[in-house]
Amino acid sequence: MSSTENVTAAGAERQTHGFQAEVRELLKLMIHSLYSHREIFLRELISNASDANDRLRFAAIGEPALLAEDPELEIRIEADPAAGTLSITDNGIGMTREDAVANLGTIARSGTAEFFRSLSGDQQKDSQLIGQFGVGFYSAFIVADRVEVLSRKAGLPAQSGVRWESSADGEFAVETVTRPQRGTTVTLHLKPDAKEFADPFRLRALIRRYSDHIAFPVRMRKEGEASLEYEAVNQAKALWTRPRTEITDEEYREFYQHLAHDFTDPLAWSHNRVEGKREYTSLLYIPGRAPFDLWQRDAAHGLKLYVRRVFIMDDADQFLPLYLRFIRGVVDSSDLPLNVSRELLQQEPEVEAIRSGLAKRVLDMLTKLAKDEPEKYAAFWKEFGSVLKEGVGQDAANRPALLQLLRFASTHEAGNEPAVSLAQYVERMKPGQDRIYYVIAESAAAARASPSIERLTRSGLEVLLLSERIDEWLMGQIVGEVEGFPGKRFKDAARGDLELGTLESEADRKRHEEELKESKSLLKRVKDAVGDRVLEVRVSTRLTDSPACLVLGEHDLGAGMRRILAAAGQSVPESKPVLELNVGHPLVKHLDALADTGRFKELSLILYDQAQLAEGGQLGNAAEFVQRLNRLLVELAAPQPAP
Ligand code: ADP
Ligand code: MG
């Protein structure tokens, strides 16, 4: 007995710890960048209190005694305007001394380094990023110069309480204390310019505004002199359990901000109750902005899962397909067991059914947004379009809806913004056209300038301009007839034959045949000159202005895919392009007239190198190209002999 006491006494002393470097950095940033959103600290702290209560209720499923001593879960807010203090108390799960050191001294989430790298130094932008990152507990220091936390873990005796304290000066102190009640109290000693947050009137307004939907009562002392009675300030009813007709847009928005720790508005939401064979309620939001970790493999995503109103877990990612990982929201099932774990979720047929229901809901919501609020949809596409594209390959069942949701930059639009849908493209196709032409390059502007599409644009045919990393993969997923567009297929303007079909006039066809006949020897001579660099030299049907271009085989890997593979350290299969010549071009005509001298070879190689450059490619040996070009330029620039 006494030895235990000794151990306790030894471990109980006050200790000072340094904050993790990232926390110090975050504190500094937050205090300066979030100045215009100071009140979010309250939302964060109430949200932590609510999480703590949720977690205790969850733990009590297996161990009811944890809840027994004090069964009604609640949150209390206490303000002292005279002292300039504010405290938030929950009777939830609580923290041990070790918990406090770990949770309130470090940032435990993945992607922290990424986050710091993405900061720009621009306060406006950074404040949004910091908001997205989820400022959490540390936001207390936006308004407080000293913060004190008293806590006791549920199930542990009173002597195992902890007192944590910091003035955000790089350090915090912890000591073991006696705390009669379970749960946590966070006390803020407000900065001189933040005393407004100790005003009960202001606090009530903030709580109603930001925490109305918190499922636990948030109580404050009744108004009037030194009242000892508490009353609930919020509705204390989980938002999604209320009927849709009774919820205002404002309430939906605020609930989103609470869920997503985002202080901007969502673009859209969808709230539904499914009844019958299986029962669940979902509330799904489309955020206005992509999180900084959207492309990080291990980034947390998914919905908040409840079973019959009991919080089960955050980031339940089994309820939506990966390509909808940007969706935030809640799913509350009446059928899943309360003790469901992540592993179990993976095997539940129930979950599979909910997932396909929710995916459909999201796509319906997006379809509606695209139709009714095209500007908002454009904003959505800008942030999340390339994630949605993943769905075309991943989700065969919803592919028709996904195809309708795609947006592209196009030669028929002035700007390079992705604004054109497939429906629009098909709508303005020429009579007899059955190919949806596209070209892929480094940027929409480069795609627009690609020699491969000269002939198409000259004939007034629309070409979609693709330039995202995922695009080559995406187009590889859509082979054959495009679902929802009978008889239409995609055609890469930079590969194989243009497949113009009946769009090619009789005159064009004749001319092409002529050219073929007349150019036989030229093609052979150029092939000899460029040698193994190309598979073949052909007469082009796709050029009008440029002398030459390079064309890939239908199934060859494109430049983008090659770069991705190479960057991933994978071997890139060898494939050679075809060199196409515009035999009507003066340069090619002059070339044809040259005898097979060194000059012929040099010009042929320059055409080949130029064709690579025009596609945005890189020259294997740029120095050689420059030397060749310079030799020509020297001749050109030399003083002409007097006649
Ligand atoms: P997050 O809530 O996103 O995890 P926070 O910065 O808000 O991040 O909180 C950090 C951690 O501190 C929480 O995950 C939790 O473990 C702990 N914590 C904060 N507040 C409380 C509280 N009132 N009760 C119990 N634990 C808490
Ligand atoms: Mg939090």
Write the layout of secondary structure elements.
Blueprint: H1 2-12, E1 15-18, H2 21-33, H3 40-62, H4 65-68, E2 75-80, E3 85-90, H5 97-103, H6 112-118, H7 123-133, H8 140-143, E4 144-152, E5 161-166, E6 171-177, E7 183-190, H9 200-211, E8 218-221, E9 230-232, H10 249-260, E10 268-274, E11 280-286, E12 303-307, E13 310-316, E14 328-333, H11 342-347, H12 349-372, H13 374-394, H14 399-405, E15 409-410, H15 422-427, E16 435-440, H16 444-448, H17 454-458, E17 463-466, H18 471-477, E18 489-492, H19 506-530, E19 536-539, E20 548-551, H20 559-567, E21 578-581, H21 586-593, H22 598-614, H23 622-637
Parallel strand pairs: 2-8, 12-14, 16-17, 16-18, 19-21
Antiparallel strand pairs: 1-6, 2-3, 3-7, 4-5, 4-7, 5-6, 8-9, 10-11, 11-14, 12-13, 15-17, 20-21
Helix pairs in contact: 2-7, 3-9, 12-13, 12-14
The site of magnesium ion has 4 residues, from helix 3.
Summarize the structure.
This protein has 643 residues and is of the alpha+beta class. A hairpin with a 4-residue loop joins strand 5 (161-166) and strand 6 (171-177).
